């Protein structure tokens, strides 16, 4: 069940920080620990930067969700960019980026409780992540 929803368009570098601010506000609403809030903001930073750097524009959708007695934050990152080549080597941790460390996607996956990705050449990328509040 979705309890709250917010979104942020990523078109400029400053939009990345607006997305982080929205994530931080929802983390406070849910009552995440400070460590989990930092993890979530790191995911938002990394994946929003990828949208800005590679697709040029996209969107982040945040949903406060409830499943049974659990509260969590679902984050969907989507763009219509070039897609992500070498996704298998990226997810295995073997990939080395020419522009950075190449660890944003795998790092985001490791910081999440649920992670799914769909990326298609010249059609874009869709990443859905869930982080559950620990009781």
Question: Can you summarize this structure?
Answer:
The chain is of the alpha+beta class and 135 residues long.
What this model shows, in words?
This protein has 135 residues and is α+β, with helices and mostly antiparallel strands. It is built from four helices and five strands; from the N terminus they run E-H-H-E-E-H-H-E-E. The chain has helices spanning 13-30, 34-55, 87-92, 104-110, and strands at residues 2-10, 58-67, 70-79, 114-120, 124-132. Strands 1-2-3-5-4 form a five-stranded antiparallel sheet, covered by helices on one side. A hairpin with a 3-residue loop joins strand 4 (114-120) and strand 5 (124-132).
Task: Please tag this protein with its features.
single chain, 135 residues, alpha+beta, five-stranded antiparallel sheet, 4 helices, 39% helix, 33% strand, globular
Strand residue percentage: 25-35%
What is the number of strand segments? 5
Helix content: 25-40%
Separation, N- and C-terminal Cα atoms: 19 Å
In which order are the strands of the major sheet placed?
A: 1-2-3-5-4
Number of helices: 4
Specify Rg, calculated over alpha carbons.
Answer: 14 Å
H-E order: EHHEEHHEE
Describe the main β-sheet briefly: 5 strands, antiparallel
Overall mean pLDDT? 91
Task: Give the SSE map.
Elements: E1 2-10, H1 13-30, H2 34-55, E2 58-67, E3 70-79, H3 87-92, H4 104-110, E4 114-120, E5 124-132
Antiparallel strand pairs: 1-2, 2-3, 3-5, 4-5
Helix pairs in contact: 1-2, 2-4
């Amino acid at each position: 069940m979705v309890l709250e929803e917010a979104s942020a368009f990523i078109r400029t570098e400053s939009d990345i920080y607006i997305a982080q601010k929205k994530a931080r506000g929802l983390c406070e609403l849910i009552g995440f620990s400070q460590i989990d809030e930092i993890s979530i903001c790191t995911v938002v930073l990394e994946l929003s930067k990828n949208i800005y750097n590679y697709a040029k524009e996209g969107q982040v959708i945040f949903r406060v969700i409830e499943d049974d007695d659990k509260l969590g934050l679902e984050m969907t990152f989507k763009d219509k960019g070039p897609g992500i080549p070498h996704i298998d080597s990226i997810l295995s941790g073997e990939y080395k980026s020419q522009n950075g460390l190449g660890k944003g996607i795998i790092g985001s996956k490791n910081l999440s409780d649920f992670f799914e990705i769909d990326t298609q050449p010249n059609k874009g990328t869709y990443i859905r992540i869930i982080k559950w509040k620990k009781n």
